[in-house]
Amino acid sequence: MDFGYTEEEERFRERLAEFLDENLTEEIARQNWEDKGVGAEARTFSGKLAANGFLGMSWPKEYGGQGQAPTYDFILLDELGKRWGCHVPLDVGYTMVGPTILRRGREEMKNYFLPRIIRGEIEFCLGYSEPNAGSDLASMQMRATEEQDCYVISGQKTFNTEAHYSEYHWLAARTDFGSGMPKHKGISLFIVDMDSPGITVRPLWTMSGERTNEVYYDEVKVPKDRLVGEKNKGFYYMMEALGSERNQVFVPARLFPVLEDLIAYAKETEFMGKRLSEDPLIRDKIAQAAIELEVARVLADHSRWLEYNHLPMNYEPEVTKVFTSELEQRLVDSAMQILGLYGPLEEESNWAVLRGRIAWYYLHSFMTTIGAGTSEIGRSVIAQRGLGLPRSY
Amino acid sequence: MDFYFTEEQKILRETARDFLSSHCPSSLVLEMEKDEKGYTPELWRKMAELGWMALVIPEEYEGVGGDFLDLVVMLEEMGRACLPGPFFSTVIGSFGIIESASQHQMREYLPKVAAGDLKLTLAHTEPGYTRYDPFLVEVTASAEGDDYLIKGTKLFVSDAQVADCMICVARTKGEKYSSDGISLFIIDTKSEGIKARAIKTIAGDKQYEVLFDNVRVTGENLLGELHRGGKYLERVLQKAIVGKCAEMLGGAQKVLEMASAYAKEREQFGKQIGSFQAVQHHCANMLMDVEGSRYITYKTAWMLGKGIPCAKEVAAAKAWVGDSFKRVVGLGHQVLGATGYIVEHDMPIYSRRAKTAEMVYGDSNYCRQVVARELGL
Any CB–CB contact under 8 A between B284 and chain A? Predict the structure, then answer.
């Protein structure tokens, strides 16, 4: 066992840290972590990351990567996370779609998409949920009918974050309508150009100010070569992509700035002549958060290590996701308690502390145990796949 | 980064699991709880023949010179089997010697430990431990010519009755909470003036009150530098803590297996109870706690083995694994229902032990204060 990084990896980390300290501005970080939408600044930053060789270190050479160990991408995500960067600017492509194309896509699809993902040029949005298919994804109704030269797709998706600025839709739709067969066996995955005629995107604003979207398809024509892998195998690919999402979006590193802010706040804030950092109750809460982050970090390292080494991933990404998302809620709750009356102040208020980010995180934290699969579905998956218990739904 | 165990570690685990499942059934565990010695010399001898006591002893003292992670693999299996007896105490005693002793002393003691001929324990905590602080030491060692006279009471000393020697933590100068002025002595448990009395615990482990009534030892018994025992103690306790985490991890894994096996086999309302989400989610929570305990323990063990400073990580591991094991046994009982509450069932062995493991070497509250200090608070 080895929980460390090699000298070369540490040198990469230093080089990256220097680059990020210089280039990752507040504006870019916000476009990223607040999910308000990646704009021109974050796009330019994405290109710079690639031009400096920070993207694609762990990807195969034939598609524009460097063919190095997976740990380089761990370092990339961790260093971004530590600086409120949250993830790479075009993260759906880089962390979910890309790895799935690499595993399941046909050669021409790999050649068409992967180099541009590694150059930080294109982004995808996920098209899974529908109004009547949330936790029960397999019951999705969007129809993709195969015609002579294309698929024709109609239906509605919902909660498709990033749909308003992505180039491509990573879309799951029903391709087999036969009755009597298991629902999940008739689903296929497609990559659709977002500017295709017949697509309408409408905003849904969330309580934390992030924009997500409803996406309507009205007889949208999609070329056959945009089918990912094999027809009717899409549900399995989607599950794999969800594994990547759990491993790489729920990266504990992005919670470290919250801990650091809290420590700084406790050290410099006084009450009744004493610093908050001297109060045993506050020390206990902060220490507990730090302990949980240590645990999350090693769980996440294990699970992404499995993924990147092409080892079987069973329940591990789910453990990382459920643990990290619930930890976020506990961490933010502790932070709010420590800030007290100041906690709920918004960034714009005169008296806001820690730039209002704890308040924002509090609002955001309700999403983390729902997005990418609820904690309840997660626990059933863990029990069924990890322990072999019978299916409960 | 690499999460693989070495081939040697895999073999070590398999050997330990096979050996313990045939030689240390739960019936023996329960029997030894009532036994005065708390172990059988036959089992001890067989473990010695397998080289287990030699595992952490350096090669130059006739040991195996294994890595700390090797020991963690072994202790995890022992925790799973709830192995009774003075193995853990002896290993911690060995670390007491390795961290502090002169070459001459190591030559005297360590080969005997490696051969299974010398059992050890650490006499550290005292009646003053109503809360925990490792530098609270009131047992005194006062110099008298070249000798020292040890005086006072140690409490919660494991396996004192069967240990051949004790590593006694004594105050040689300074205030009672100071890390400065602590010294370590290795003392023959049969020395005149030592009296050990068993104290019964719900865990059925062998804890003792040990009275030192002006026990005379010579300068030969002093381990390392006078007054500098605090720094040795700190290093020994870090290893003891992570070793205890490994034992708890093994126990928690076993409880998880018992609960999920029962959830698959037990039927109510015409269905396996494991198909009910309330039960499934209990099991999932146990698995998450076990996984977190597993990797935080391995990571900390790796750091200790590499000599990377890890005061924060060690305290974090103890707080997390102690709390986790407590939650796991709670949920284990819930899944197993009334059947797990019966004295012949294996479940109570683990829930009784989880509580003493949680308290030893500093409970979670104490550990969180250490973490807070390490965070710069």
Answer: yes
d(CA B206, CA B34): 10
In the stretch 52-81 of chain A, residues with CB closer than 8 A to chain B read 71, 74
Query: In this structure, what is the dihedral angle of CA atoms A107, A318, A87, A54, given to the nearest 10 degrees?
Result: -50
Residue B303 structural domain: 231-374
Q: Per the CB < 8 Å rule, is B1 touching A388?
A: no
- Among the partner-chain residues A294, A376, A391, the one whose CB lies closest to the CB of B296 is A294
B263 in contact with A at a CB cutoff of 8 Å? yes
What structural domains and CATH numbers belong to chain A? Answer: 7-89 (1.10.540.10), 126-233 (2.40.110.10), 250-387 (1.20.140.10)
pTM to 2 decimal places:
0.95
Instruction: Considering only the beta carbons, identify the residue of B3, B284, B377 that sits closest to A305.
Output: B3
Alpha-carbon distances, residue B343 vs B26, B79, B111, B350 (angstroms):
11, 19, 41, 12
Treating both helix axes as pointing N-terminal to C-terminal, what angle do A71-82 and A280-308 enclose, rounded to 10 degrees? 150
* Cβ neighbours of B303 in A, within 8 Å: 3
pLDDT digit string, tens, across residues A330-342: 999 999 999 999 9
Predicted ipTM of the assembly: 0.93
Contact call for A291 and B316, based on CB within 8 A: yes
Residue with tokens 């740990």, as numbered in its chain:
A71
* Same domain membership, residue B21 and residue B106: yes
B163 plus B62 within the same structural domain? no
Pairing outcome for strands A211-223 and B140-144: unpaired
Assign A2 to helix, strand or coil: strand
